[in-house]
Amino acid sequence: MATPGTRVWALTEANGEVVWWPAKVIIPELEGVERTDQDDAIYLQWYGDGSFGVIAGPEHLEPYGGNDARRQTADPAVRAAIEAADADETAVGGIIKTASVAPPAAAKPKTRAREQKTDVAKPDEPSGAARDDVERSDAELVALRDELEQALSVQDVPAARRVLLKFARTKVDFRQLKVTRAGLVVSSVLSKPAFAALFGLARIVVRFWAQALPAVSKSALRSIAAMRAHPDKPQTAAGQPETEETGARGTNFSQRLRDVLSQDGDASMIVAVDEVAAALEKAATTKDKRMHLIATLEKPGHSELRSRLLSGELSATAFFALVPSELMTPEERRAEEQRHAEQLAAKQASEESMLQFSEIFECEKCGKRKCTFYEQQTRGGDEPMTQFVTCHECGYQFQKGGYE
Q1: Same domain flag for 244 and 314
Q2: What are phi and psi for residue 54, nearest 5 degrees?
């Protein structure tokens, strides 16, 4: 069913709506479509507007046929796409109609209908069209970056797709990536499950922009890929043997710092690595600071701390001003809180073991009789003393005696 040239029904979903859309299986290289890193990906050309997309696996496809309930639709865009599929005499499988119908370009569906098809992984373009990358100013890139951030904040998948499609056709240089930080926002799409349908498109943008990175950053990317492929094998970004001179200021410290900053990110995150690493190197003025820096950032639980450095939220100077409690990983912080709670409970138990509880008083709040008290003269010497009572069941404190 997934043979190139075969007509199929492809399941698309967005905003809780499911749509079966007619498509033709293609070989991406022949259509100028860039492949994703999904092993089971199936590449399609949508009937109706001729754009391209990708489906995660064959479970989202069904054979295309003439007597099919999926053909019963009131959506004019889907009906036009079905007519275009029926008229495609070059396709394999399904039915072939010889009746004259409008060409696919004339049957282009409404924008909203196309936005509901979530598995798009390539900018909309006619079959066989060549790339026509555009150059944008810093202000235009910043505006698109802000538009994408807004779409991510409100979980607007169609709006995010529109911006990513524009980014996929935008040629940038290394300076623009550093100044606008657009790459960081594109990379953040990959960390949001609600935008899983756009992961393929975001990766295409990231890889396209990675071509603008300097040689040392591309080397770091290759090192990351090698480490992920062989996690048990020691690696360095430059492919050089590792040494133990972590505390020394030099090539090994610089490279190790860049490696640890790069370990969580994709290509767009690498854009900030050189700048952040240089600032940290400058701030790490002593051997102890350099060793402290590497030891802290290499902790597996510090991905959030590394991200804060790369995003600019935390400066190099501010990093070295953090107190030990702020440098704990989430796991270390939970363990420390548990240790403090256990110590407090032990102290309280020890103190209570030395108390003599009385059942004379009944707690006015919980009604229990596990109380301690002490007496104090609060009025004249000939007046009865006042008892100050503490309930050790609920902690309530009250007074007895005197004029109540």
Answers
A1: yes
A2: -140, 140
Mean pLDDT score across all residues of the chain: 73
How confident is the model over 306-326, as pLDDT tens digits? 878 877 778 888 999 988 888
CATH number at residue 383: 2.20.25.10
Give the integer Cα–Cα distance in Å for 340 and 87.
73
Query: Is residue 259 very low, low, confident or very high in pLDDT (cuts 50, 70, 90)?
Result: confident
Last residue of a domain, one of 210, 235, 250: 210
Is 155 in the same domain as 243? no
154-190 per-position pLDDT tens digit: 989 888 888 888 887 788 877 787 788 888 788 788 7
The span from the CA of 177 to the CA of 127, in Å, is 30
* Contact (CB, 8 A) for 214 and 174: yes
Nearest-CA neighbor of 327 among 290, 362, 302?
Answer: 302
- Could you tell me which of 161, 182, 162 has the C-alpha nearest to residue 171? 182
- Domain range enclosing 370: 355-404
Query: What's the first-to-final CA gap in the chain, in angstroms?
Result: 89
Contact 252, 294 (CB under 8 A): no
Number of domains in the chain: 4
User: What is the phi/psi pair of residue 333, to 5°?
Assistant: -65, -40
Instruction: Classify residue 239 as left (phi > 0), alpha (psi -120 to 50) or beta.
Output: left
